[in-house]
Amino acid sequence: MKKIVLKRTGGPEVLEILEVKEPDIEDGEVLIDIRATGLNWSEVMIRNGDWPVEIQNGFCLGSECAGVVEKAGKGVQRLSPGDRVALLYVKAYTQEEQGCYAEKIAVPEECVLKLPEGLDFREAAAVPMAILTTYDSMVIHSPLPESGTVVVTACSGSVGIAAVQIAKRRGLRVIATTRSGEKKSAIVELGGEVVVASDPVRLKEKVAQLAGSEGVDYIFDPIGGETATQLLSLLSGEGTYVGYGNLGGNEFTVSSSFRFHQLKIHGYVVLRNLADPQKMQAVWNEAISLIETRDVVVPVHKTFPLCEAAQAHREFENHKHFGKLILVQ
């Protein structure tokens, strides 16, 4: 079978196509014939050397995919060959052999997510990271307010897109931010009021103009750094900031007045919060109805054959896409 690996960090050219032996399955495992793999920015970071993993014999990227169960090992009870499934596999970030940039993968049954009818494999591969991150963080871990204004930054990626839709579905006003004016119309279609800015200070000014004197009640942000510093000053009393990434830097400043305003500042990492497969299954079972009913749609921007993973990474780094980039086979 074919597998994409990197043996050193660097640009997209370090991704190699190898022909390898099909993985064996152990008791309690299933072999998934992967039909589509979703790309995530963390994979670009790993490839660049900006993610804390050790590359030894060849790291296979990819934690998110959709496919069909091909074989089931002894003791498997919930799944059978032919079942359509999805995967958000946390171990792909720590174990070199366990990535989804491959034609097949062997994983424990407990980690596999069943797919509803009506989703093709490309759509299904775009869903797990987005819906699990947004639903678990915005509904369970750090619940959205009952009313008010929500700011969603970096909203043209799959997680941001899902976050806008979840907040709108709950009747909240959503201010969505992006660096590209080309994506404005697509964000408006989701129901967001759009702010286009790349400078954090200007971003704050534009959000403040839209929000008015009442400020904002909830911020959902993968950027951190100076962007977080600026936006935190707009939170109203008892408002919530959820940081689920650090694309703009690890450190940000919080005014000492946050105590008097009783602001809630939460960190969220889906790979930690849902590392327990049982918890992941519970969140998936609760959230997947939003995908089935199309209340939340994660658009597929473009697909690439598995062997063109390097080109997919180049497109990812151009930041021109809206939605998900998918590897197919």
Topology:
Blueprint: E1 2-6, E2 15-19, E3 29-38, H1 41-48, E4 64-72, E5 84-88, E6 104-108, E7 112-114, H2 121-125, H3 128-141, E8 149-152, H4 158-169, E9 173-178, H5 184-190, E10 193-196, H6 200-211, E11 216-221, H7 225-232, E12 235-243, H8 258-261, E13 264-267, H9 270-273, H10 277-292, E14 300-305, H11 309-318, E15 324-328
Parallel strand pairs: 8-9, 8-11, 9-10, 11-12, 12-13, 14-15
Antiparallel strand pairs: 1-2, 3-4, 3-6, 3-15, 4-5, 5-7
Task: Explain this structure.
This protein folds into 2 domains: 2-126 and 299-328, Quinone Oxidoreductase, Chain A, domain 1, CATH 3.90.180.10; 133-270, Medium-chain alcohol dehydrogenases, catalytic domain (Quinone Oxidoreductase, Chain A, domain 1). It has 11 helices and 15 strands. Helices cover 30% and strands 26% of the residues. The protein has helices spanning 41-48, 121-125, 128-141, 158-169, 184-190, 200-211, 225-232, 258-261, 270-273, 277-292, 309-318; strands at 2-6, 15-19, 29-38, 64-72, 84-88, 104-108, 112-114, 149-152, 173-178, 193-196, 216-221, 235-243, 264-267, 300-305, 324-328. Strand 8 (149-152), helix 4 and strand 9 (173-178) form a beta-alpha-beta unit. The protein has 329 residues and is an alpha/beta fold. The longest helix is centred in the last third of the chain and has 16 residues, at 277-292. Helix 3 crosses helix 4, helix 3 packs across helix 10 (277-292) and helix 6 (200-211) runs parallel beside helix 7. The strands form 3 sheets. Strands 3, 4, 5, 6, 7, 14 and 15 form a 7-stranded mixed β-sheet that branches. It starts with a strand and ends with a strand.
